[in-house]
Amino acid sequence: MIFKIFNTPANIVTLRFKNKTLEHEFLQGYISKYLSQLRFAHLAAILFLAVVIPSELLLIKMKQWLIILKVALVVPSLILGFIITYIFTGFYKKHYQYLNIYYILITGISLILSGANVPDNFAFSLYCGLIICLLFNYIFIRLSFVKSSITGLIILIVFFLFAFHNIQSERLLTHLSIYMISTNIVGMFSAYTIEFEGRKSFLMLNQINRDTEEIKNANKNLEAQVKERTRELLKAKDKAEESDRLKSAFLANMSHEIRTPMNGILGFSDLLKTPKLSGEQQTQYIDIIQKSGTRMLNIINDLIDISKVESGLVVTSISNTNINDQLEYIFTFFKPEVERKNMQLFVNTSLDKKDSIIKTDREKLYAIIINLVKNAIKYSNSGTIIFGYEKKDNYLEFYVKDTGIGIPEKYHESIFNRFVQTNSSLSSGYEGAGLGLAITKAYVEILEGKIWVESEEEKGSIFYFTIPYNHDTEKKTIIETPIEQICEREQIKNLKILIVEDDMASELLVEAAVKEFSKEILVAKNGIEAVKKCQNNLDIDLILMDMRMPEMDGYEATKQIRKFNKNVIIIAQTAFALSNDREKTINVGCNDYIMKPINQVQLKNLITTLINNKNANRIPIKII
Predict the structure, then answer these.
(1) Which of 111, 292, 555, 624 pairs as cysteine with 264 (C-beta 3.0–4.6 A)?
(2) Strand 395-402 and strand 384-392: pairing?
């Protein structure tokens, strides 16, 4: 029959655990705990017999063979058992239950035999010793309940066999019978209770040990987590401090980079007011103002691009791209600048035209290559610059090689980090915010590639980057017409043009740019005025629409105009720099868009293209 001791299944009679491993652990622990008590029981039995045997020798009725039995068997067995507990402790722990049954039986039976062969008055003393033996069996020897009960019953049966035959006094027999039976009953209940509590204590101790171990492990894990978290916090603290230091240095550099071109713009604008300037001086001052403005625009573009990267606003626009045409255009664009520095520029394309059409983000690929070539030009004063690509497995490996100042090996990784420049001694004398490579790295990773550099100081650098080779197997003709390229087209004149612009300076600039195309120029300050003027002038040929204005913006105004005029050409003007600006303007009804600050050459070519082909859907190229 099964019941539970401290939630552990056990036999209700034997108290044994159903789990054999747990039972073995209990028995081993039980004997280890009470080993000293068992030694005391052995010693007490030996001392008791040491007192009894000499007394028995004085009795005439005591048979000699019985004394010899005690001296030769019982006493040596007890002495040997006592010695075993010390010398052969392991053996004793393993077999102590059966050894102790033997010791109890021979001691108890020897006392019964002695009591059966002596006078009644002395037999009572021996039987009292037997009662002590039974109590030791149940309470002190620590046998299991079942084994101790069986041992006690055997002794009790042997006692009654000899007692009824040898004890003449009925009064003594009655007393001894009552004592022996009650002792056995009390012993059995005591043994059961002692073992039950012992097993319960064992299970509780096991649970406490498990809980303690779990707490220790939890503490260890917690300590490890605290240490790891502390390390992470210290690392984060160091990183934050380094970031703060780099950003402070970056802001200081930004202040210099912004103030320097602003100084050129404001300073030379003021000098233009000087009376009696020669034409050559005026041209020189204007040229400096334009270069300073271009430098300022590049800095602003870098800041906008890195902000988009940091905030996760960069969007890819995958389309068919002819990489050979792209590289040829970049070569043509930078060749004059390189030659002005008495250097040579080369481009290598390894694929033929049909295999060079891939699916990628055309604008980002332009931005990556142009930025690397611009850096090569900036940091080189002689020699050659070579850029191109090679097909390797399922990807393209691009490279830009120069013979410039080179980069120390310790900076080969950090130069791609935000707000990090190689070193003040290397970068001094070269304009720029130091964000170009961070932007380039971000774009390469967006295109699922990687970028790295091989460089040696004073010997030049080679920048590599990869992108997947997603070849378009369909035969398609990709026409890319950079906005800077001026095509010979039919001269456009006599256009009725509406300029929608709330900023006076921007309006005057656009008006000056389109004057050669126009026969009449209308101006609106916001979207509401633009819609009204279009309704009153259905013959307008071209609208230059600013997209951000008070009262009604350019997006809403374009939607309203398209409701009653589907044919007028609308060019969006936007100062925003997000990659989906063109899509937004096309979706509301614009034919194309141009980004501020407006380049007059770009604007004129765009007008020429759209007027000659109203269905053109060209994507302009943005150079960073």
Answers:
(1) 292
(2) antiparallel
The b/e string for 7-44 (b: 16+ C-beta within 10 A; e otherwise) is ebebeeeebbbeeeebeeebbeebbeebbeebeebbee
Instruction: Report yes or no: 462 and 348 within 8 Å, Cβ to Cβ.
Output: no
Separation of alpha carbons 616 and 401, rounded Å: 37
Output the CA–CA distances (angstroms, integers) from residue 554 to 508, 511, 541, 547, 549, in the order listed: 18, 18, 17, 4, 7
Quote the CA–CA distance of 613 and 489 in Å, as a whole number.
11
Report the pLDDT value the prediction gives residue 17, as an integer from 0 to 100.
82
DSSP bridge pairs for 451: 465
Question: How far is CA 21 from each of CA 3, 16, 25, 26, 70, rounded to the nearest angstrom?
Answer: 18, 11, 6, 9, 40
What is the distance between the alpha carbons of residues 503 and 84, in angstroms, rounded to a whole number?
Answer: 110
Query: Beta strands of 538-580 (E only): which ranges?
Result: 542-546, 569-574
Residue 305 to residue 444: CA distance in whole angstroms: 14
* Structural contact between residues 495 and 539, judged by C-beta atoms closer than 8 angstroms: no
- What pLDDT digit, counting tens, does each position of 555-601 carry? 999 999 999 998 899 999 887 655 567 778 888 999 888 888 888 88
Centroid of chain to Cα 585: 40
Q: Give residue 618's pLDDT band: very low, low, confident or very high (50, 70, 90).
A: very low
Q: Is 520 left (phi over 0), alpha (psi -120 to 50) or beta?
A: beta
Distance CA 504, CA 314 (A): 32
CB count, 10 Å around CB of 283? 11
Q: Furthest-apart CA pair in the chain: how many Å?
A: 160
**Dihedral of CA 543/547/552/558: which sign?**
positive
Q: Which DSSP state fits 619?
A: P
Helix (H) or strand (E) holding 214: helix 170-271
Does the structure show a pLDDT above 50 at 624? no
State the Cα–Cα distance between residues 46 and 56, nearest whole angstrom: 15
Residue 500's DSSP bridge partners are 524, 545
Q: Which two tokens stand for residue 228?
A: 């790891």
pLDDT at 128 over 70: no
> Quick one: how many helices (H) and strands (E) in the chain?
18, 14
Residues in Cβ contact with 244 at an 8 Å cutoff, skipping those fewer than 6 apart: none
Block residue for tokens 């943005």: 622
How many Å apart are CA 476 and CA 468, to the nearest integer? 20
| Cis-peptide into 550, omega within 30 deg | no
Which of 81-85, 335-339, 507-511 is predicted with the least confidence, judged by mean pLDDT? 81-85
Cβ atoms 527, 501 nearer than 8 A = no
- Separation CA 243–CA 239 (nearest Å): 6
Residue whose entry in the numeric block shows the structure tokens 């003594």: 172
Distance from C-alpha of 353 to C-alpha of 517, rounded to nearest angstrom: 38
The residue with tokens 């030694």 is 39
Using the Cα atoms of residue 399, residue 404, residue 410 and residue 414 in order, give the sign of their dihedral.
negative
Quote the CA–CA distance of 297 and 202 in Å, as a whole number: 82
Report how far residue 372's alpha carbon sits from residue 68's, in angstroms, rounded to the nearest whole number: 112
| Confidence tier at 399 by pLDDT (50, 70, 90) | very high
Pair 411, 454: CB distance under 8 Å: no
Instruction: List pLDDT tens digits, range 74-88.
Output: 778 778 877 887 788
